[in-house]
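Hey,
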Amino acid sequence: LRVSPDIDPIRLDGRFDEDAWTRGQVISDFAQEEPDNMTQPTETTTVRVAYDDRYLYVAVRMLVRDAAELRGGLGRRGSAPPSDRLFVAFDTAHDHQNAYVFEVNASGVQNDYLQVGDTRTNNDYEAVWDVVTVQTGQGWDAEFRIPFSQMRFPAQPGDRTVWGFNVRRDVFARGEQDWWVAKPRGAQGVVSRFGHLIFDDRLTPPRRFELTPYVLGQLHTTTDSA
C-alpha cells in the first residue's frame, strides 16, 4: 500500500469525507485465516492510510450483510467484551520481527500491544492515540489517529520509507478472522508475513520527551517554649 503526505487536516469523526480518503489508495483484498483458511471473506473490508508531519491516519470500512449480527459492547481499555474487532499493525523498523498493534471494537473500546519476536505479544505497551468508531446500517467504520511519537522507528536511507503493515478484522457472529495478508494453515510467523506500507517520503523520527508530575512536600514543626 503506497501513501502520500497530506497537507489538509483530517477531522477525526468517522465520516471519511476528506480529500485524503476520497483520493487515497484503497486495499480490500482480504482473505480468511479462520475458519475457512485462505478463502474469500464473508464480508467486505476496505482500508485507507494517510499521514502528515505528526500523525498516521487509518480509515477502515467494514460492511455487514445483516446489521443485526454486528456485535459491539463497552468495557475498560484493554478489556473489550466478545465483539466485532479491528486490529492495525505496523512493523516500523521493518525488521520482520516486531510490530505495534492498535485494536478497537465496534463500540470504540481501545487496546494496544507489541508483537515481539515475530509471534509473541507484550501487553506492557501503553500508547496515547485516538480512534472514532461509527456503527451504520451497513456495518461499522473506524478512523484512527496515531501520533508518530508513540512508535519508535529508524530513519531509512533513500527518499522513501517502508514499514511492514497488516490489518485483521474479527467478525464475531461467525468466529471469522479476515486478514489483509492472511497466513496459510500450518505456516509459521506473524510479523514476518506482513505486507508493505510505503511512504512517499523519508520519515524522520520525532523527538521524544516526557513530563513527569510530582509533588514536593515539606513539614515544618515548632516547639513552644514554656
